């Protein structure tokens, strides 16, 4: 395959960056990936996976390993605050691909599977390295923190929601914006009643649980908070238990199991939306650097991986770099903006205490759209 350009530097070795590296490499581009973390690790708890995300994992060649290491099911369950089932939502993608409709996996496990694919493909990964400067235009001469420099036809900025590349090249784009919710995350032993992605709606806030392996599960709780405050680590379990106290059933069981040693984190939800186009002067933003979403549709990782895959496909099909980037934007902008918009819509409904039926309807409509080909 002959790509529209020959070389690419990818800044950021996370989900978006690794996906782009694999897809551009497949298209025939000579790729170099860099990451500031010399250990190339990732922190975090479990993540929820949708059917469309599992589909792009198949495209990247990691689905079989994800199925072995994580947990999948065919649908998504919505319950009331006592655990009574309100609806089962179909999550499978269209096209008869035989891919499950939902799932979960530990974030470090997903990172490890993608990193192994990078190594297996022989893609250069330079760790403990950052960009110190870039020339104008394309090809770009890039200077690195180790004192070296090199030239690349395209620079792919996959450096996350707080992207330094976006700040430099797109200074007019507003930085991360707090959306009025704090996401509490808990890793815990899997409750026997949780065998699929499950929401608990109708209480004062939204709670979700999802298996991430046969023995573990991930719980999130979205708390409406006008002003973010720092919570001491030794108060996390008691604060979380207080937030869960009006729920019965499975949620009450999990609450009773909380201890001072429970694996809990609480983080404010923030979003960034970069107007089209996401490219300028030989640099393109992808993933959270371009369109960081809140987690209501569990699609942030999926959109990041799709960005990487589509960038490679456009590189392999276009005649020039500009044509490739233009085609990339035509395929990605509306879909990613849709995810951000519908996620924020769900957040507003949650904060307003809207009925579970109204929330379920938004999820069903959004997944029906996202299940279409990307």
Automatic annotation (TrEMBL):
Residues 8-337 form the FAD-binding domain. It comes from Maritimibacter alkaliphilus HTCC2654. The keyword Oxidoreductase applies. Transmembrane segments: none annotated. InterPro entries: FAD-bd, FAD-dep_Monooxygenase_BioMet, FAD/NAD-bd_sf. Keywords: Monooxygenase, Oxidoreductase. SUPFAM superfamilies: FAD/NAD(P)-binding domain (SSF51905). This is FAD-binding domain-containing protein. Pfam families: FAD_binding_3. It comes from the Bacteria. GO terms for molecular function: FAD binding; monooxygenase activity.
